[in-house]
Design brief:
Number of strands: 10
CATH architecture: Beta Barrel
Helix content: under 10%
Number of domains: 1
Order of helices and strands: HEEEEEEEEEEH
Number of helices: 2
CATH topology: Porin
Low-confidence stretches: 1-8, 86-99
Strand order of the largest sheet: 1-2-3-4-5-8-9-10
Distance between the termini: 7 Å
Largest sheet: 8 strands, antiparallel, barrel
Mean pLDDT: 82
Structural class: mainly beta
Length: 156
């Protein structure tokens, strides 16, 4: 996703996916963002999935929504999440009920636009078992499949 694509993408909808982690830190948190971006209103929505391989493995999922601001060739991305609690309804059907309040916050600085060049950083926090965990100084990178697509299509 080249800078020209960023500038031309003022209408329509596009999808982007990021891995947010601290490279070289074994056992650290890993956040995967799968997002739909709607440029006319600068709105973003999608899903956040946080994993952490420890003695008590963590898998946190939350639908997210937010907005972005353009700052030159960079993007400031702001997301919030409201987790859905699955409950067993009448006649054995799964029903989703929104929990009150937010359970996820994300602030990201994407250098060079949506392609998230080197130096793109994020901080996020999530609510798990009644306690907030804050993760700071994480690197943002396009997901592997998007990086390979960008390279193979010569978009950089």
């Amino acid at each position: 996703m080249a800078n020209q694509l960023d500038r031309d993408q003022k209408a329509g909808l596009f999808i982007v996916s990021y891995n947010v982690s601290k490279p070289g830190v074994a056992g650290g948190y890993n956040l995967q963002l799968k997002l739909s971006v709607y440029p006319p209103s600068r709105r973003v929505s999608g899903e956040a999935v946080i994993t952490h391989a420890t003695a008590q493995p963590l898998v946190f999922k939350s639908p997210v929504h937010g907005h972005y601001e353009e700052n030159g060739s960079n993007i400031e991305l702001f997301l919030a999440g409201h987790n859905l609690l699955q409950t067993q309804g009448q006649q054995g059907q799964q029903q989703a009920h929104a929990l009150p309040g937010e359970d996820f916050h994300f602030d990201g600085h994407l250098k060079g636009g949506w392609q998230a060049d080197a130096g793109s950083k994020a901080r996020y926090a999530f609510l798990q078992h009644g306690h907030w965990t804050e993760v700071i100084g994480q690197d943002i990178q396009l997901s592997d499949e998007l990086r390979h697509t960008v390279k193979s299509l010569n978009l950089r």
